[in-house]
Structure formats: C-alpha cells, structure tokens
Amino acid sequence: MRPDVDDKSQGAVRVPELSDGDIATMLAALAGGSLRVERVQLSDRIVWIKRYRGSGLRLGARLQGLVAALTRQPILRSSPLLTPEQAIDREVRQIAAFSRAGFLTPTIFYRSKTALILSHLGRPISKQMGMLAAADSDAHDELLVRCALELGHLHAAGLCHGRPHPRDFILDDGRFGFLDFEEEPAAVMPLAVAQARDVWLLFLQIASRCLKPETPQRAYAAWKTVAPAEAETALRQVMPLFAGFLPLARFLLRLRRGHDLVRFIAATDFLASATASRPQTQ
C-alpha cells in the first residue's frame, strides 16, 4: 500500500506494513548517520535515507544563469537555489506526479525538514550494464535503448526527469522505474525545451557507453517513436547551440583527455547529425 503524503506535512507517514522494530531501526539510522544517501536493511526489505543539504553559493550555476540571460537560451537556465526543505518538497512533488502518471517510483516512508526515507525499487540499470559489459554486449546496449524508450514514454505523459542517467533508472522484473528527482528544469524553461534537455543529457551516457555503433541511432529512434513532436522540434532547435561548442571541446580534448569532454563530443556529434534538417525533395 502506498502511503498518502501531504507535500506540506512533516514527520512520519503512516506505514502499516512496517513493524515497530523496523520503524525503530529506520529512525535510529536517520538520527545516527551522516551520509548523503544511506542504505538501511530492515527485517524484510531495504530502505534508503536521502539527506538534503543547502545548495551553497553555486557560482557555476550563477554563471550559467548569466550566460542563459545573455544568449536568451532557456535551455541553459539552471534550477533555482533551494533550501533542504524546498528540495524535499520538489522531490515529493515529482514522485507524486510520476506515480499519478503510472510510472514506478519509490514509496516515501518518512520525511523531515532535511531527509526522506524511500523504498528500494531494485538494481539500477547502470549496475546491470556493468555486469553485462564483458559478457553480453547485445543485452548491455539493449538497456540503453530501453532507457531512451522509457524517457520517450515519460515525455509523452507531459513530464521530464531533469537528470536522466542509467543510475537513476530501475528495471526490475520487467517494470521500469525512476529515481532521484533533483532537477526540475520545466520550472525555469518551457516543457518541450526541458524534455530536449533530458534527451541530450541521456545521450551523454548512451553515445559514450554503447558497445555497438548502431545503438545511438536505435535509441534515438525508440525515443522518437513515442515522444511528443514538440520535444523533437525543441531538440532540433537547440542542437546547433551545443554543436557550436564542438570545435572548442575537441581542442580541449587534445590538451587533456577527460570523461566529460568525451561524453559531450559523442552525444552532441550524434544528436546534431540525427536532428539536422534534411532538404525538401522536389
């Protein structure tokens, strides 16, 4: 049974399926730990404690906001600075929205002003990929295609994830789930642009981690078959902006090889080509 959660409430949520001993264990771990994300084993299940801290100065985010204002590019806007309580409100709100749309999300067992306790959904896709990388390249890349497909379903439901990554996706017994709603780009940019941003962020992983050269195209086709046309249009419109940074990224890569640069080049190169407008045939 999924507990009812009031976005403005504080403290324990009534969870009748947990024993008194499990509740005591859960709250003791909450009080005694300090890790950002902590795994807690109860008598018959795993739960996760997620602690929230202040955003701090975030100079990079402020600079990003300045660039967005100067270039008038909404996709460059960063999420607003939030207090821990506001960040929890956002995560609870996003979990509720995804759940209402029929997507698998964590159950919230407890919330305070600085932490959430969430149910365990299963092994993240990133871990499943790690197990398959050397053993089954087909199955490994099929997971990447599935990620793109499910992101398309999410977009078709009028939602966006904000920080799509295989570590935040769950595939358990055929059911696909979503975790970690720590970004809400649709709050600072049009929904279609936020969804285009989702695609680019996911392809930072797909284009750089795939084991087969055809996988990015298959993944993009899977997303495109179910995603709204507005998101595809927005993606086509923003890719020239990112592609404009490719010469600089390639130059910097010659000076110093870094994973972020490799991911940026792989994803941007592919998506710029995949979304390029084709001339009308007469």
Write a concise keyword list for the protein shown above.
Serine/threonine protein phosphatase, Phosphorylase Kinase, domain 1, 5-stranded antiparallel beta sheet, Kinase-like_dom_sf, single chain, 7 strands, 282 residues, alpha+beta
DSSP helical segment count: 10
For the record, give the distance between the C-alpha atoms at the N and C termini, rounded to a whole number: 59 Å
**Stretches with pLDDT under 50, minimum 5 residues:** 1-14
- Which quaternary structure do these chains form? single chain
Which shape, going by the Cα principal axes? globular
Query: What is the percentage of strand-forming residues?
Result: 5-15%
Question: Which strand order spans the largest sheet, edge to edge or round the barrel?
Answer: 1-4-5-3-2
Global Rg? 20 Å
Mean pLDDT, nearest integer? 86
**Biggest beta sheet summary:** 5 strands, antiparallel
- Helical residue percent band: 40-55%
Number of strands: 7
Alpha-beta content class? alpha+beta
Order of helices and strands: EHEEHHEEHHEEHHHHH
Q: How many separate domains?
A: 2
InterPro entries: Kinase-like_dom_sf
Organism: Pararhizobium antarcticum
Protein name: Serine/threonine protein phosphatase
Textual characterization of the structure:
β4 (108-111) and β5 (115-119) form a beta hairpin. The chain is α+β, with helices and mostly antiparallel strands and 282 residues long. The longest helix is centred in the middle third of the chain and has 20 residues, at 137-156. The chain folds into two domains: 33-119, Phosphorylase Kinase, domain 1 (2-Layer Sandwich); 125-274, no CATH class. α5 (137-156) packs antiparallel against α6 (191-209), α5 packs parallel to α7 and α8 (229-243) crosses α10. The chain is globular. The chain has ten helices and seven strands. It comes from Pararhizobium antarcticum. InterPro entries: Kinase-like_dom_sf.
